[in-house]
């Protein structure tokens, strides 16, 4: 259905769990994927894993550093001449910014709050501004940001993360408007809002060392009509769809992929 063959895609945080899986699905769809990650080891692992399936490259890049982003932008344009797709998956919760059960909001260190907000807000805003400018100049492109269930209603312990992801929602809508009004209808900006998927950032608070559910996981399940965590492969369909011309009239949308979590009152 979604013809993405030979498109050029950047996946930030592509060395991580969600970004790696999205990269794999794009590579298998014939997309030339460049993963950007701050950790060389994560890049090496992912590139080695995906190379047999198609065109995949990785560049070290800090999404919070304009110089780093501009430098990889130049390299990508020199090599491929275009940026068709940007998927912003670099982000996630940070240990110090996740309150322990025995803490209250007044224990939160400002430094930790700033770090998690910077990563999850500017970590998508800056790539959109730098790579989105290329899309504006070339007149086409599709951007996908990653929102969260933590933007629908308050989720305990993750204040800064929730604030930053909520900012991503309005930023997505704002950029969608700006691109369409000023640069035409071929540049689209959307977000997906994953429900609960086990990733490196949340494994410790969702699973006990023996793999059983924590109390927090049990609460998630009580609120999820499908009664399970998502499998990361379940994000791939919507990402490919939003990247493709099949979604040519969809911009500014924030699409939950959550087993019903956001639409269920739990009653
Ligand atoms: P992850 O920790 O597995 O991957 C994140 C990747 O981003 C890592 O490879 C890391 O090295 C990289 N990264 C971190 N800081 C960076 C920086 N400054 N510059 C470049 N790269 C950087 O996380 P994940 O579980 O795959 O989550 C990816 C995204 O999905 C995040 O935005 C997260 O908030 C969101 N999300 C995850 C879940 C979930 O259940 N796992 C749910 C909702 C949303």
Topology, element by element:
Layout: E1 8-12, H1 17-28, E2 32-37, H2 40-50, E3 56-60, H3 66-80, E4 85-88, H4 110-138, E5 141-146, H5 159-183, E6 187-194, H6 203-206, H7 215-222, H8 236-243, E7 254-257
Parallel strand pairs: 1-2, 1-4, 2-3, 4-5, 5-6, 6-7
This protein binds nicotinamide-adenine-dinucleotide.
Question: What would you say this structure looks like, in words?
Answer:
By secondary structure, this protein is of the alpha/beta class. The chain has one domain: Rossmann fold (3-Layer(aba) Sandwich), CATH 3.40.50. It has eight helices and seven strands, in the order βαβαβαβαβαβαααβ. The protein has a seven-stranded parallel β-sheet with strand order 3-2-1-4-5-6-7, sandwiched between helices. It is globular, with a radius of gyration of 18 Å. Nicotinamide-adenine-dinucleotide binds next to α1 and α4.
CATH topology (level 3) name: Rossmann fold
Our measurement of the CA-to-CA distance between the termini, rounded to an integer number of angstroms, reads 37 Å
Number of helices: 8
How would a textbook summarize the main sheet? Answer: 7 strands, parallel
Short overview:
The protein has helices spanning 17-28, 40-50, 66-80, 110-138, 159-183, 203-206, 215-222, 236-243, and strands spanning 8-12, 32-37, 56-60, 85-88, 141-146, 187-194, 254-257. With 267 residues, the protein is α/β, with parallel strands linked by helices. The site of nicotinamide-adenine-dinucleotide (NAD) has 30 residues, from helix 1 and helix 4.
């Amino acid at each position: 259905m979604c013809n993405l063959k030979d498109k050029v895609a950047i996946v930030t945080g592509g060395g991580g769990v969600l970004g790696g899986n999205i990269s794999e699905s794009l590579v298998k769809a014939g997309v030339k994927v460049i993963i950007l990650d701050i950790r060389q080891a994560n890049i090496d692992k992912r590139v080695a894993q995906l190379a047999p399936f198609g065109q995949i490259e990785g560049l070290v890049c800090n999404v919070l550093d304009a110089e780093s982003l501009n430098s990889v932008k130049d390299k990508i344009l020199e090599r491929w001449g275009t940026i068709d797709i940007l998927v912003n998956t670099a982000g996630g919760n940070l240990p110090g910014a996740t309150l322990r059960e025995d803490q209250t909001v007044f224990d939160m260190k400002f430094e930790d709050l700033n770090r998690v907000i910077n990563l999850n807000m500017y970590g998508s805003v800056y790539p959109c501004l730098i790579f989105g400018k290329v899309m504006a100049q070339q007149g086409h492109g599709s951007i996908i940001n990653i929102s969260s269930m933590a933007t629908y209603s308050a989720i305990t312990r993750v204040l800064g993360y929730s604030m930053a992801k909520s900012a991503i929602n309005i930023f997505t809508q704002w950029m969608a408007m700006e691109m369409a009004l000023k640069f035409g209808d071929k540049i689209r900006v959307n977000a997906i809002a994953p429900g609960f998927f086990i990733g490196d950032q949340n494994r410790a608070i969702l699973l006990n060392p023996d793999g059983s559910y924590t109390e927090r996981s049990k609460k998630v399940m009580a609120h999820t009509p499908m009664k399970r965590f998502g499998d990361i492969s379940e994000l791939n369909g919507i990402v490919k769809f939003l990247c493709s011309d099949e979604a040519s009239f969809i911009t500014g949308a924030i699409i939950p992929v959550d087993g019903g979590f956001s639409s269920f009152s739990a009653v």
